[in-house]
Amino acid sequence: FEMKRTNILGGALLVSSFLVATYNIGLMLELTNSKERLRHSSLSKVTITHEPRNDLLGSFVAPTLYLYAVANYYGWNLEILPFAGSQQEALLKRHVALAGNISKDWGSGFQDASHRVDYDPVLLNTESYDTMGFFPTVSKLTTNSKDWIDIEHLPSGKLELSALCQNKRSDGSGCYIRLTDNPHLIQKHMEKITGGSDKFFTPELRAHMRTEFLKRNKHRLKHFENGFNIAIHVRRGDALDPDRLMDQSTYAEVARRVCKQHSGAHVHVYSGGPNRDGNWTVLESLVKDCGSVSFHIDEPEFDTWTHMILADAFVMSKSAFSEIPALLSRGEVFFPDDFWHPYLSFWNFFHPQTGKPM
After folding, report:
1. pLDDT tens digit string along 93-135?
2. Helix (H, G, I), strand (E, B) or coil at 107
C-alpha cells in the first residue's frame, strides 16, 4: 500500500510539473506573439508614397501601380502626392513646350508620343489617378511636406521598415515614408521577395483593380467584335532606342500563332505618333491568317487601355504603357522576353526578334 501511494504521489508530481512547464511554454509563446503583434501594429501606421514622375502616362502611372500592390500586400497606407503644382509637373511642361524628352538617347520629343489634336501629356498625368478608379484620393499634402521621411530604397521586407521608422523622424501618430524619384526602387523591392511580382499582384488584387477601372472606363469599349479579340501595342511614337523597338514581324508572329489557336480571331493594332516604318504592311498581312485586322492610331490613352485590358489576348511592347493594362488584363498576356519591367510567371514569353515562344 505504501509503495502504491508513493507511485501515485510521484505520478501526480510528474503531471503537475508537466502542467506547469506547459503553462510556462504557453505563456512564453503568448508573450512572443504579443511582441510580434506589437511590431506589426506599429507597422500598420506606416504611410508610404513616392514622388510623381516627370514622364509620359505609362511611366508616370507604373511606379504608383507597383507601390499600390506593395502597400496592399504589407497592409501599409498608400498616399498619392499631387502632380499638379509639383516640380515634376513644371519640368514636364517645360519638356513639352520645348518639344523635348528626358533622354535624347532613346526618344524624340514628347509630342511624338501621339499626334492627336487634343493630346496633352500634362493633363493626362494630372487626371490619371482618378481615372484609374482604384487609387486613393490625391493627398492635400505638398511634396515638400516636412512630415515625410525621404529614403532612396525600399527595404527588402516589411519588418525591416520598423527599424527605419524608429530611427527616423515621425510626427508621433505614424511613420511617413516617401521614396525618391527613382522608378526602379519599387520594382527592385518586388524582385527581392520570393515569388516576385506574383506575390504582390495576386489574382484577387488584379480582379479588384480591373473591376474598379472598368466602372470608370468600360464605356470606352467600342472596337471589339463578337468572337476572340487580340490587342497588340506597337511601340512607335517618340521611341527611337532599338532596345525598345520591335519589328512588325515580331508582333505578327505572335498574333499569327494566336490566330491559329482561335480561328477567325480579330486583331486590333494600337499605336501612337509617327510610324517610322513608313507603313503597316507586315501587320496588315495578318488578314490572311486571322478574321480581320484593324488599326487604331493616336486614340485617347484610356480608350486604348480599356481595350487592352478586355482583350482575350494582349501582345505587349517594351513599354510601360503596355505594362499597366497587362497587370489588369483578364486574358492571355504575351510578354517580350528581354523586357526589364515586372512580369507575372504565367504570362506567355516571346523572343523580341523572332516572336517565337520562349
Report:
1. 988 888 766 666 667 778 888 999 999 999 999 999 999 999 9
2. strand
Picking from 221, 301, 226, 289, the residue whose alpha carbon sits closest to that of residue 60 is: 301
Kindly write down the DSSP assignment for every residue of 173-195, as one continuous string.
S-EEEEE-S-THHHHHHHHHSTT
0.70 exceeded by pTM: yes
| Residue range 38-61, pLDDT digits in tens | 344 445 478 889 989 889 999 999
Grid coordinates given for 274: 509617327
Contact 145, 182 (CB under 8 A): no
Query: What is the C-alpha separation between 112 and 271, in angstroms, rounded?
Result: 11
Q: 255-279: string of b/e by CB count within 10 Å (b at 16+)?
A: bbbbbeebeebbbbbbbbbeeeeee
Mention every residue, 6+ apart, whose C-beta is less than 8 A from residue 286.
252, 255, 256, 259, 267, 293
pLDDT of residue 95: 86
Per-residue model confidence (pLDDT) at position 252: 98
Q: At what angle do helices 203-217 and 121-132 cross, to 10 degrees?
A: 120
Smallest CA-to-CA distance from 304 within 272, 265, 343 is with 272
pLDDT, position 241? 83
With cell 489576348, the residue in question is 313
Backbone dihedral angles phi then psi of residue 223, each to the nearest 5 degrees: -95, -30
In single-letter form, the type of residue at position 83 comes to: F
Residue 229 amino acid letter: N
